[in-house]
Amino acid sequence: MSGKPPLEGSAFISQGLQYIQLAPTQFNQLQANQPDKSIVEISSTPQQTLKSFGASGAWWPNFLRDFPTAQQQNLSELLFSEDWLHLSSYRNNMGASGDNDSVKVSTLGRGVESFMNTNGSYDWTRDSAGMYYLRAAQEAGVSSIAFFVNAIPAALTAAKTPSGTDLGVDSIAPSAHRLHPPMNEPDNNFADAGQEGMSVATTARASVFQLLRTVLQSSSSSPAVTSIKILGDETSQITSQALLVINTSLPNAPPPIKMTEISTFKSALGIYRPFGWTDPKIFGPEYDPSIDSALDMARYVWQWLTLVNPESWDWWTAVSNMLPCSPSVTPGCEAQYNKDAGFNYGLIYIDNNYSNTKDYNFYLPKRFWVFRHFTKFYRPGAVRYDIPNEILPYGTVAVAALGVDKAWSATFINRNETEQVIKMKVPKVDLKILAAVQTTQIEDWKSVALPVVGQDRIFRATLPAKGVLTLQFATDDPASLAGRRQKIKWQERKEGFRNHPDRIRHLGL
């Protein structure tokens, strides 16, 4: 089975992808390596052009407003600096909470100040915490900024509340000129006020997109903005509820989901036995800072890049207060698995009890370092190419791309308990391996020995057990490496932090 499915089947495939994401994740690879059996090559057919890898700025800025200024600045560096995560996309949450609403969001931090007061007037000094990191992203040159709402401003609702709103067809037009990001989680209006929320009738969702596009096209914008696109975050069954309509009425609508061979699913996921429900809880109610959870995320990224072909990929969320313990009270607990508390959705964690413990450190799970392989090596404008799974070791998947600087990157995700050896052929003559970085349970970001490319353009590489390895190769012609920022080695960067004790304390290094 191959080729693109008919559009009417895309909802079924979307549901199938959800099951695949929860497929068995345990790999105990004992088979002997046979690197000479096949040569790993990057396909010659270009896929999508990558625009960005980013993370969400929702809710957590409300906690960071309490942190000392130095820590706030250090977090900006962790997120946006080329020496750290170097996000190329940032999702900013535009709040719905006014200054005098009839109902307040009950969960601490999840009520985000709207620029519109409850009486309908504007106050541009509101949501100062969120604006701080939005400006930091802009100053760092983040190329893609996404704005999203959980609800329309309370001032626009009859009950003057940021939650419990139901947006129907009749109420779209009066709100459209203020609705820049159209909807988020539109199946739930969060009437319990646990967070801001607004439901959108399924029959109205396509109209929201269409009307918002008309408003944006007719409004003026800054010359610095090269394009504006509309995103329906967490719009359930988007393929059946929106794309079926949008695909025929809006220009540049995304195509149906791309399907690949069944054998690709098998070799990539290790599904050579009956399905079992192991529930990796990628975003779930547990706390797993280990490489296991990070590899779950890496596979999740791979699935979407290679099966759905998106141009951008964002993680929820950049920072989380859902650390299930206080490290200053229980030293080392931030590195321990907890199946009963916490959440697996942070790239960076803070102590939820910081107001009492005065612990303003940032704690980095393996998820941070694995995601850095994508944010660091796959910059805006890179063109993705396939690495067929059938020529990779069982339990291993890979992503490759050619950057605008003419440097190739190839990332290998090995879920096996053992190392895997591959023989790979570089795409062109005269290419040299210039960087090799791996992340494992014991290594955050380690530069390893560079494989040597032979005259036949072939080299051998060892994929670390339960780890991620990224190789970058290009010619040694400086002109071909324009824009690359690989001069500062990881150890040199780390020494730089050691020379600044205040930063060491703030960053928790």
Describe the protein's architecture and organization:
This protein has 509 residues and is an alpha/beta fold. Helices cover 25% and strands 17% of the residues. The protein contains 13 helices and 20 strands. It has helices at residues 10-21, 61-64, 69-80, 128-139, 172-176, 205-218, 238-249, 262-269, 291-308, 354-357, 366-377, 490-498, 501-507; strands at residues 40-41, 46-49, 52-56, 89-94, 144-149, 165-167, 183-184, 198-200, 232-233, 312-315, 319-320, 348-349, 383-385, 396-402, 408-414, 420-425, 432-439, 446-447, 458-463, 467-474. It has a 7-stranded antiparallel sheet. Strands 5-4-3-10 form a 4-stranded parallel sheet. Strand 14 and strand 15 (408-414) form a beta hairpin. Helix 3 crosses helix 13 (501-507), helix 6 (205-218) packs across helix 7 (238-249) and helix 9 runs parallel beside helix 11 (366-377).
Assign an overall shape: globular
Provide the spatial order of strands within the biggest beta sheet: 2-13-14-15-20-17-18
Give a short account of the largest sheet.
Answer: 7 strands, antiparallel
How many E-type strands? 20
> What share of residues are in beta strands?
15-25%
Q: Spans of 5+ residues with little confidence (pLDDT < 50)?
A: 1-32, 172-180, 237-280, 478-509
Overall radius of gyration: 23 Å
Structural class by SSE content: alpha/beta
Number of helices: 13
Report a brief summary of the structure.
By secondary structure, this protein is of the alpha/beta class. The protein has helices spanning 10-21, 61-64, 69-80, 128-139, 172-176, 205-218, 238-249, 262-269, 291-308, 354-357, 366-377, 490-498, 501-507; strands at residues 40-41, 46-49, 52-56, 89-94, 144-149, 165-167, 183-184, 198-200, 232-233, 312-315, 319-320, 348-349, 383-385, 396-402, 408-414, 420-425, 432-439, 446-447, 458-463, 467-474.
